[in-house]
Amino acid sequence: MRVYRSAVFAFIAFTFHALPAMSQDATNVEITPYVAIGSEAASPVGTAVTFPVTSTLTVEIDVAYRRGEGNLHALSTNTSLLWFLPRVGQAAPYVAGGVGLSQYGMPLFSSINQPIGTQPRLAMTMNAGGGVKMPINEKLDLRTDARWFKSFGRYGSEQFRVAQGISFDVGKR
Asked: 27-171 in CATH: which number?
């Protein structure tokens, strides 16, 4: 049993040691402000920051804003993995999936069942989708992203959005 544990530990140690070497050929950290259209309750504006892990895998952190129920200023954030597929000419297609948190407005009712306001709540979300990145020059890329979002909780919902943004490099990781 001790040999087995040592072998597993050695494998994990070598894997983590190799990650920085694999990320040397990865792209720069990128920031992508975007605008989107989609179903009701989908966020129309946001910003995504991507961090390379390998040349084909990146971690994306996304913060978005929408005007929510009852004039609530609703924010959402997601952490997703983007896996880049083989290039098609200059286009770099990818698939994406992740989890996050989203604000929504829960209606408040009076004693006679009349809506009197909105109380902000948080819901866990998951997302899946994909997109394509097209280079404009060495530092800029045009990015189109289509995602499906599913919220969980008392008032769970689904949204779909298509976002268009400009990615720009901010430096090596």
From this structure: 2.40.160.20
